[in-house]
């Protein structure tokens, strides 16, 4: 009998077999710390919307190390990521300089980790809003006292504040995906598993998301900086499927040694 943790087995099988997936194309915002010519001044957008996110006050520190996601049994050595060391180290400068992201259906992806306790009174994670802040529509993410990620979303459907059942353990990398299907649902995934489902919101592409912040809810609230690290951030103007989320994870990570192969194969056998 197959256990519910099918995703780990599915991903491990393809890593073991040597097959790889390509990144799902079409991201409007695609930030990758391993490919950023701006370094300490900005985070260049590799996505279709172009442009960059300027450092707000100052940039988080570009670091290199091993990224592991224990829940999936996978890792990547010599990876690069941005780490906030103190308050006011975020990306997302004044709104006029940000890329513009028109969405109805949408997907947000983050490869990230929390590093420690609060710098200030909140862990503000990220924000994608129509200017001015909390304008016609937007998505804001932060953590409550129990370190559960919470979404504040507003649009034609009104406004709601809901926990997402995503917990960020200190020092542990995780892959988060939030998928909004217009007027239908908002589905949250952590490390490939669906963890929550909320009612959808009515978004309109004409109200572009242009108040964008990584490490805070907005440029105006950047003092409440997230005490953590980001390696990858993506925003699509479409609702990715669970399979496509799998493809994006597997396109980022690869098996690095025969020893790792044996570990993954043991995990596959344990899950069957």
Q: Can you give a write-up of this model?
A:
The chain is mainly beta. It folds into two domains: 39 residues, no CATH class; 225 residues, Jelly Rolls. Helix content is 14%, strand content 40%. Strands 1, 4, 5, 7, 12, 13, 14 and 16 form an eight-stranded antiparallel sheet that branches. Helix 1 runs antiparallel to helix 3. The N and C termini lie close together (7 Å). 46% of the residues are buried. The C terminus is likely disordered.
Quick gist of this model?
This protein is mostly beta strands.
Describe the SSE topology:
Blueprint: H1 6-17, E1 29-32, E2 42-44, E3 52-57, E4 61-69, E5 74-83, E6 89-91, E7 106-114, E8 123-129, E9 138-143, E10 148-155, E11 158-167, E12 174-181, E13 185-190, E14 193-199, E15 211-214, E16 228-236, H2 242-252, H3 258-271
Antiparallel strand pairs: 1-16, 2-3, 3-6, 4-5, 5-16, 7-12, 7-16, 8-9, 8-15, 9-10, 10-11, 12-13, 13-14
């Amino acid at each position: 009998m197959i256990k519910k943790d099918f995703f780990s087995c599915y991903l491990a099988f393809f890593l073991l077999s040597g097959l790889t997936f390509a990144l799902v194309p079409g991201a409007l915002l695609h930030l990758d710390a391993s490919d950023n010519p701006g370094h300490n001044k900005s985070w260049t957008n590799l996505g279709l919307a172009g442009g960059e996110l300027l450092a707000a006050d100052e940039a988080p520190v570009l670091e290199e190390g091993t990224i592991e996601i224990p829940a999936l049994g996978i890792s990547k050595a010599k990876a690069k990521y941005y780490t906030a060391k103190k308050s006011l180290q975020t990306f997302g400068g004044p709104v006029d300089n940000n890329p513009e992201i028109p969405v109805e259906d949408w997907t947000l992806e983050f490869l990230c980790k929390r590093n420690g306790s609060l710098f200030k009174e909140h862990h503000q994670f990220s924000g994608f809003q129509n200017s001015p802040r909390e304008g016609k529509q937007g998505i804001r993410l932060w953590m409550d006292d129990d370190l559960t990620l919470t979404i504040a979303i507003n649009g034609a459907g009104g406004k709601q504040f809901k926990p997402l059942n995503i917990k960020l353990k200190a020092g542990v990398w995780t892959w988060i995906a939030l998928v909004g299907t217009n007027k239908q649902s908002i589905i949250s995934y952590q490390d490939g598993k669906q963890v929550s489902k909320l009612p959808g919101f009515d978004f309109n592409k004409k109200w572009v998301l242009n108040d964008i912040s990584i490490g805070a809810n907005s440029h105006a609230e950047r003092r409440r900086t997230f005490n953590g690290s980001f390696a990858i951030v993506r925003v699509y103007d479409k609702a990715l499927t669970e399979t496509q989320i799998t493809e994006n994870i597997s396109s980022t990570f690869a098996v690095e040694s025969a020893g790792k192969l044996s570990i993954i194969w043991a995990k596959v056998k344990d899950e069957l």
